Amino acid sequence: MMTAVLLALLLSQSGGPEAPRESAPTGSTVTLAPPQAPLPSLRFGVFISCASLGPSPQVPSGRYRLQCDAEARRCLAVPENELEADGTESDRPLERAAVCREMPQEELRQRVAEGYTFVPALAEAPPGWYRDERGRVMQFNFDLHRRVWLGGAWAPLWRSGEPSALSRGRLDFGIISEFPEGQKMMRRITVLDTELVLGEQSSFDTTVLRYDTNVRQDKPPIRVTTFLGKPRRSDFTFDMGGWLEVLRLELLRRGGIDHIFWTFVGGHLTLDLWHSRDLASYVRVRAGPSLEYDRTHGLFALVPGAVVEGNFTLDPNGFHHLTFGAEAEKLLLDEKVGGRPHHPERLRVRAGYELILLAINDQPLSLVLDGRGQWRTDLADEPPGWEWSANMGLRFSLWAPARRSAPMAAPR
């Protein structure tokens, strides 16, 4: 009897028989192979899975992106989040990474049982983008033919027979985009192309809309065959397009007088002398009329003009951009105005170079250098003469995607 009482007392103090405990998981479910140097990368555009490989000191979440090769029995494994500077997982998910499909645990265990090797790797990056060892992505290729830009520059002016105007600054803004149609046509739209010059000899120039095209003909319209020796054929193409300008305002202050010109509409035919395979770079001539209104004197004029111009992207990644042009215009059907010749003329030349220096949040900041000259007789009471301007400044592109021909990042 006493023995039974003592046994009951011991059981009540201990709370009864102890339930069996599950052992805590230790280590990772899948052991990664030692990292290679350099790290391989997942291939962009190829199927990617997501799976839990188990926690580790470097990746506490245990979540990885996997790209598996059945023939090599190998899976490239990338943490789903970016890494900190010390190599441990952060709470920031990978940017610009493709959507992945969850791999069932049964499939993962089967791959482990079949002897698959799980190799540390870097996440994929789209063309024109680069991913570093921490999984952070950055853009290295820029299309300056598709962007929103905002810039500023020092713009000194020299005029014949007058002191130099050095205290001038220029602000510029605009939106441009291109729309290719295969290899046959490039459509280009520019909106609110604007320049404001402040200081001495100030000016303002803005165009609401500009539209132009570059065209590649399917067949050369002229074929010349020569028969001196072996027959030789030469093809001559006429890659003609169009150029349209709507609502341009030009305001110049010269001699204390504001000269205001409105161009309601202008249309030119274009002929490409040369263009790149993707039609983004070109040298061309264009000519046609414009309808202009001289607000200062209250009269209309028909303004035929001719232009030779070029636009080049000099490198595959879009860091070097060169433009040039020469333009001639003559006012016709205008009334005679005192202080200037009847049917005045304008000549303009320009050349510019733009170099991307760095990118802020993947938006490029460029150095801009350009020179301009003009000679015009349409400003009343202003003696005709050349004026030259040199501009040096910076330009920030708020949107500049990778070029359509952007390559994949080179292997590290």
Structural class: mainly beta
- The residue-averaged pLDDT reads 89
Shape: elongated
How much helix is in the residues? under 10%
Order of the strands making up the biggest sheet: 10-12-13-14-17-18-19-20-21-22-23-24
How far apart, in Å, are the first and last alpha carbons?
82 Å
How would you describe this structure to a colleague?
The chain is mainly beta and 412 residues long. It folds into two domains: 28-139, no CATH class; 147-399, Beta Barrel (Porin). The protein is built from two helices and 24 strands. The strands form five sheets. The chain has a twelve-stranded antiparallel beta barrel with strand order 10-12-13-14-17-18-19-20-21-22-23-24. Strands 6-1-2-3-7 form a five-stranded mixed beta sheet, covered by helices on one side. The longest helix has 13 residues, at 2-14.
Descriptive key words:
412 residues, mainly beta, Porin, 2 domains, 12-stranded antiparallel beta barrel, 2 helices, 5% helix, 53% strand, disordered N terminus
